[in-house]
Amino acid sequence: MSLTSEQKAEIDALRANPNQTLRTVSDGMEKHLYSAIPVLDHGFVRVIDYMGDDAAICQAARVSYGKGTKSVQNDEGLIRYLMRHWHSTPFEMCEIKLHVKLPVFVARQWIRHRTANVNEYSARYSILDREFYIPAPEHINAQSVVNNQGRGDVLQGDEAKRVLEILKADSARCYDNYEAMISDDGQAGLARELARMNLPANIYTQWYWKVDLHNLLHFLRLRADAHAQYEIRVYADAICNVVADWVPAAYRAFEDYRMGAVTMSAQMMDCLRRMLKGETVEQENSGLSAREWREFQDMLST
Which cofactor does the UniProt annotation name (predicted)? Predict the structure, then answer.
């Protein structure tokens, strides 16, 4: 993990001078404030600020539903009810602001989650650091033969070595040329906003990312899933650990009703009913495509 000396000094100063507040705080989240959680080879996630806790979710729900919540015996029961029935607005009452350092190609996936506020490090104004994501050998994979957007088996031997050497050499060469173009030593120097176009997608960028809990959980459901690309999944996994400490009741409900649950189509439910009645159901008489049938079998085996 690469924190600058200025960032380290800022973290130390903030953690050394806590402020009193009348607002609700989450003891679990307080331990994460400002501390950087290492991700990949040079990346990190750190919590800059947050608002709300499990009680804030319940408070918002009771304002919304009034007497309708009187049958719920406790806050966790209410949170589980809200999660189970997809009542999302109470979860929007909690927010988190993260400082994330990540490779540009991961950022391009991440930014597709548009229900957040983002402010990214400006390569028009500042010079990017010479830091690139280079995968560990166990994460150098061939293309999957069954999934056009997935990975297959790990590359071995000389082929894996050749790929790693190309990644390292290309990254270094691109950055050398970037520095040469922007240099004003004996020349005017190319504008930074133009020179950046030569940098590879594995260079690291940074941003502040602020999002409410409802949309954060949607992000985590997709990006912490086993099918997500490894390089974004490790960031999601790190954030999952933070959320579990921040809003433990909400996170337990999220694990049960989102991460640990499956969604079946009407045709899949029909197949399941027929199976429970003792009927032999195969892909040919299921009404499902070959891919849907594989997904259905995965659900049952899981």
Answer: FAD
